[in-house]
Amino acid sequence: MTARLGIIIVGSEILLGKREDRHFARSREQALNRGYELAWSLLLADRWEDLIKQYRWAFAQDCPFFSFGGLGATPDDLTRAAAAAALDLPVERHPEAARLIRERFGDGAEPIRIRMADLPKDASIIPNPVNQIPGFQLRQGYFFPGFPQMAEPMTQWVLERDFPLRTSALQLRILLREQKESDWVDFMERFCAAHAQVEFSSLPSFAATGTQIELGLRGEAAALHAAWQMLATELERRGVRWEWLEEPRFP
To answer: Where does the record place the MoaB/Mog domain (predicted)?
Structure first.
């Protein structure tokens, strides 16, 4: 299991400013709490060709993804069919999903609500504890309703079932006062080559005393500790004034 996952949020109303997204921040927090990071995020309109194209891309990636929205029974709810089309699969009525919807709505399930049981071939259902209308899993894609109050317990259930708890990567950030990025590029290149397994970032900014640089490192404890030793040695050699912004707690 990769330590990353992607996020797809479907909703023209979000892009048009009629609603604010609540899935991204919540899903990121849930994932990080289990030691997983977000690899990418897409916000898509309810457009058939765009959805197929982006789902095809998502299924081709090397990490799982969560998709939110477009699972209703109205003509603009295209997610189920688009996910199937992205993998050249037919849409079929899922017997367990149909049973749950009929139990929930009785005679009111037909003829509209039952459409929400039409899922891509080979999909498995994800239980919905709020109104019993399930989401579904298709390969490494997990599909949830657009309502955050429904999606939250469903994503948590998936994370606990399929995403083993991991130790989160450590990170550190320091601020270098009165420094220019251009003076550090040669060292940065050597540093990144020597510690390729550690994520590196450099963010310049301006202060009253002149330019300054925020350097960030992120990685597993042993790799981060070795990288920090190289950086600390260089700071001492240059006699640079710096301060902690985020200090890691090495084991």
So the answer is: 6-166
- Cβ within 8 Å of residue 220, ≥6 positions away: 169, 170, 197
d(CA 130, CA 60): 32
What is the rounded CA–CA span in Å between residue 102 and residue 115? 11
Query: What are the pLDDT digits (tens) for 157-202?
Result: 999 999 999 877 788 999 999 999 999 999 999 999 999 999 999 9
User: Which tokens in the block code for residue 24?
Assistant: 């991204």
CA distance 172 to 198: 11
Domains of the chain: 4-162 (3.40.980.10), 170-246 (3.30.70.600)
Structure tokens of 128?
């919905």
**Which residues, in sequence order, are CB contacts of 168 under 8 Å at separation 6+?**
32, 35
For the question of whether the overall pTM of this predicted structure is more than 0.70, the answer is yes
Q: Are 59 and 120 in contact (CB under 8 A)?
A: no
